[in-house]
Write a structure and sequence with these properties.
The protein has 100 residues and is mainly α. The protein has a domain of 40 residues. The chain contains three helices and no strands. Keywords: Coiled coil.
């Protein structure tokens, strides 16, 4: 029993675009780095914030690499599914040579 493969190329393309936007936002998010240690009022709090920011930077970079890869996969999937769909549609239009 063969299963039909269904997909929505527009949804895949939109997903790729949205993930690409998220990648850019994650890459450019340096807001916590801008905190002034004097603004928090205490060295322990400032140190905790620094630790958090450094850990978040590492985790954010790893997450961002995966988001970027997923965005590329979604966009490429949309392109390849559309290409295959067009090729299959064209093949169905062609008459076999022995039926002419």
């Amino acid at each position: 029993m063969a299963a039909d493969l269904t997909y929505n190329s527009g949804d895949l393309e939109t997903l790729g675009d949205q993930l690409g936007d998220l990648h850019g936002k994650l890459k450019d998010d340096g807001r916590l780095k801008e905190l002034n240690k004097e603004e928090v009022g205490h060295n322990k709090v400032a140190e905790a914030i620094d630790d958090f920011v450094n850990d978040w930077d590492d985790k954010r970079n790893k997450l961002n690499d995966k988001v970027e890869a997923l965005a590329k996969m979604a966009s490429k999937s949309s392109e390849e599914f559309t290409k295959a769909d067009l090729e299959l549609a064209e093949a169905l239009k062609q008459k076999p040579e022995d039926e002419s």
